[in-house]
Structures are given as C-alpha cells and as structure tokens.
Amino acid sequence: MPTEPYRNLDVPDEETAAPEEEVDLLPGEVVFEENDIDDGFSPARLCYILNFLFLPFCLIPYWKRDNAFSLFHAKQALALWIGLMVTAFLGSILTPLGIGFWVWLVGFPLLWILNYLGFHQVNAEKAGPLPLIKKHPQEWFPADVSGEDDE
C-alpha cells in the first residue's frame, strides 16, 4: 500500500529516476558528441598510424576541419610529426659531433611512445592532452571545425 496517496507522477522519485551517467575524465580531456567520434574515428586513427611511417596524414583533417574529434587528434599528431622531423634533422646535423645518435636514441622512442598513446586514445574514443606536449598543439594550431581561425 502506498504511503503517499497523492503523489505527483510528473516528478520521478529517487527509486524510479534514471541514474545520471558519470563519465570518468582525465584532466584536460575533451568530450565530443557520439556522431563526431563515429565520423572522425578513421581519420584520427590514420593520423597516428601514418605518423609511425613519417607520413603527415594529419594535415588532411587539419585542412578539411570538418570533424572536431579528428581535428583534435590531427593537431596532436601534427605536433608529434613535427617533433619527429626535428629529431631526424637534429640527429643528422649533430652526428659529426658524436651526439646525433643520442638525439635519435632518446627522441624517436619518446615520440613513438607519445604517438602510441594518442593512437590508444583514439581507440578508446577519448580525446585528452598527451603527456609532455599537453595542450600546446591546440594553442599552436588554432583552428575550429568551421574552418575559421581562433584569434
């Protein structure tokens, strides 16, 4: 037998209310809509996969700017690709001095680990800043989905 004979049916009580979904976010993590993640999943993955081969595929989502999820990861992948190119250049220049090998030995594995972490974030359908580079790619490459530059 109900204890409240005149209960308001429009307002759900604590027992029948749908629990609010809690999302575990990393510090600085960005949340995107489900359709943005679905549409940008493949280009975001390709950004990191082709970075392993030194191919700057990340420029395509950056130039198109048609999906927020792929644009976020394209900016991070572009920063990593530039880091790979700088590491290769500095390693080549510093080889006659005997320290080029050490630049490569430290730089390439570090950048490839960051690249893998970005790839792992895409597979987990998350978008958060990578260690060491943090939010710098979002500041260095200011662009939004509409194609207009942020000022």
The coarse overall form would be elongated
N-to-C terminal Cα separation, in Å?
63 Å
Order of helices and strands: HHHHH
**Sheet/helix structural class:** mainly alpha
Strand share of the residues? under 5%
Per DSSP, the total helix count is 5
Poorly predicted ranges (pLDDT <50, ≥5 residues)?
147-151
Specify the biggest β-sheet.
none
E-strand count: 0
What is the helix fraction of residues, given as a range? 40-55%
- Mean pLDDT level: 81
Structure, described:
- The protein is mostly helical and 151 residues long.
- The protein has one domain.
- The protein is built from five helices and no strands.
- It has helices at 34-51, 59-64, 68-94, 100-123, 136-140.
- The longest helix is centred in the middle third of the chain and has 27 residues, at 68-94.
- The radius of gyration is 22 Å and the shape is elongated.
